[in-house]
Automatic annotation (TrEMBL):
InterPro entries (UniProt xref): ADH-like_C, ADH-like_N, ADH_Zn_CS, CAD-like, ER, GroES-like_sf, NAD(P)-bd_dom_sf
Protein name (Swiss-Prot/TrEMBL): alcohol dehydrogenase (NADP(+))
Enoyl reductase (ER) domain location: 14-341
Record EC number: 1.1.1.2
PANTHER family: ALDEHYDE REDUCTASE
Reactions that this protein is recorded to catalyse: a primary alcohol + NADP(+) = an aldehyde + NADPH + H(+)
Organism listed in the record: Streptomyces malaysiense
Length: 346
């Protein structure tokens, strides 16, 4: 075991503070990663504040991790010291179920081991990326291509794969009309990736405040959902609606925007229950679905795609001492579009 510096929430809803945590010794198939940058995801805030239910403390959040390998176990074959790598939302899974064998580790039948707020295979708590380093099995590490700088690559380990996976699964591409609901940490990557895939992209946001940004990021159209005329004008328009917001919506209104056989896919997770009238699905054989991050192979595919197309997150780099302020700004939608911690400041 080694002791490393980190930022942790000591209790639910408590401010994060600098502390020290223990990391396991590097095992046969492990890599030790010197974390350079860690993104702040809205889910970090949900979990620190127990918005999704009871959590374990002290909690070190962070599942958007980019860094450099500094040590490898004797059995490691995929990585070497000096490699640029990333770690996303999961650090292990059963490896035996059909989903794991298919590269869908995020849907592991026994449940994946989450990067933080979980229990590792050795019975110890998992701690996330708001720290100096992390030890991870090589099979749950991905390579960051040279075409991506580590700071803008870090948010891709959650925001990138969370939007890439459903866009690919629901065949976003040329000839398809895709709407992205919300232009935040997830939504801005959804716009970039959908555009790069060749789809016609529309942003549906509460207001037109970020319209110029949305168009620069690759959107073809931008509408305010606070205007009832939006739902009249766009009725029956979209093949796919990617909902990235973590708040309840009027699902009937949004589902009315789908074409026949269109799908609305949710990647944001509200803390409150949501309601839906099944009548809103009947008319055009519409689907309401969801998608959870992505497996390890698809995460690597996403990184390679983003490097090929020059897609990194739009970030605001902060010091570790600014984490608590950043949380409040995320809740106030005051970030364009992802906070990233320079872990050298921990």
């Amino acid at each position: 075991m080694t002791t490393v510096a980190a930022y942790a929430a000591p209790a639910a809803k408590a401010p994060l503070e600098r502390t020290e945590i223990e990391r396991r010794a590097v095992g046969e198939f492990d890599v030790l990663i010197d974390i350079k940058f860690a993104g702040i995801c809205h889910s970090d805030i949900h979990q620190v504040r127990e918005g999704w239910g009871k959590a374990s403390f002290p909690m070190v959040p962070g599942h958007e991790i980019a860094g450099v390998v500094t040590e490898v176990g004797s059995g490691v074959t995929k990585y070497a010291v000096g490699d640029r790598v990333g770690v996303g939302c999961i650090v292990d899974s059963c490896r035996e179920c059909d989903n794991c064998k298919a590269g869908l580790q995020q849907y592991c039948d026994r449940g994946p081991t989450w990067t933080y707020n979980d229990t590792d295979r050795d019975g110890t708590p998992t701690y996330g990326g708001y720290s100096k380093n992390v030890v991870v099995d090589e099979n749950y590490v991905v390579r960051i291509p040279e075409g991506l700088s580590l700071d803008v690559a870090a948010p891709l380990l959650c925001a990138g794969i969370t939007t890439y996976s459903p866009l690919k699964h629901w065949n976003a591409g040329p000839g398809k009309k895709v709407a992205v609901v919300g232009l935040g940490g997830l939504g801005h990557m959804g716009v970039k990736i959908a555009h790069a895939l060749g789809a016609e992209v529309t942003v549906l946001s509460q207001s037109l405040r970020k319209k110029d940004d949305g168009l620069k990021l690759g959107a073809d159209h931008y509408y305010a959902t606070s205007d009832p005329k939006t739902f009249e004008d766009l009725k029956g328009t979209f093949d796919l609606i990617l909902n990235t917001v973590s708040a309840p919506l009027d699902f009937s209104a949004f589902l009315s925007l789908l074409r026949t056989d269109g799908a609305m896919v949710n990647v944001g997770l509200p803390e409150e229950p949501v309601q839906i009238l099944l009548h809103s699905l009947f008319g055009n054989r519409r689907s309401l679905s969801s998608s959870g991050i992505g497996g390890i192979p698809e995460t690597q595919e996403m990184l390679d795609f983003c490097a090929e197309h020059g897609l990194g997150a739009e970030i605001e780099l902060i010091t570790a001492s600014e984490i608590n302020e950043a949380y409040e700004r995320v809740l106030a939608s005051d970030v364009r579009y992802r906070f990233v911690i320079d872990t050298a400041t921990i």
